Amino acid sequence: VPPTFTTVFEMTYRYIGTLFDEAYSMYVAYGLRGGGGRGIRVGHMGGFVGQLLLRSVDRSERVYAAMRCRGYPLPASPAGARRLGPKDAAYVAATLAAFTALRLIDMGGLIADMIGGA
Question: What is the pTM of this model?
């Protein structure tokens, strides 16, 4: 998948979450200040949506700035990347063999036999 598409989907996902968080926060605040009425009045809807857009964009900018401080965007391939060699293949084979053996052999029973002498 091209990095551009990945970045667009990633930022859209983050922005939608930010938008819903801000909408919920504003809805609760509106309900607390509005005298306990149900929902948002139609006359207040334009101001609510405009304020929601401004707040969510501001918060998204802060999230993006924090991401940049932590090194976003990551490089496509890490510096010094190398191909897998024979040592790497041997390590993977040994690890898989050990996990397979541990899965197939009843280690609890073996340990109990060694300790208990039965």
Answer: 0.51
Of the CA atoms within 13 Å of residue 64, those in its CB half-sphere come to 13
* Spatial separation of the C-alpha atoms in residues 26 and 18, rounded to whole Å: 12
Per-residue pLDDT of the chain (118 residues; tens, 9 = 90+): 677 778 778 878 878 888 888 889 999 888 888 766 778 888 888 999 999 888 888 888 888 888 889 887 766 655 566 788 899 999 999 999 999 988 898 888 888 888 886 5
Question: 52 with 24: CB under 8 angstroms?
Answer: no
How far is CA 105 from each of CA 47, 82, 94, 101, 113, rounded to the nearest angstrom? Answer: 67, 36, 16, 6, 13
CA atoms within 13 A of residue 35's CA, in its CB half-sphere: 2
Identify whether the C-beta of residue 59 lies closer than 8 Å to the C-beta of residue 18.
Answer: yes
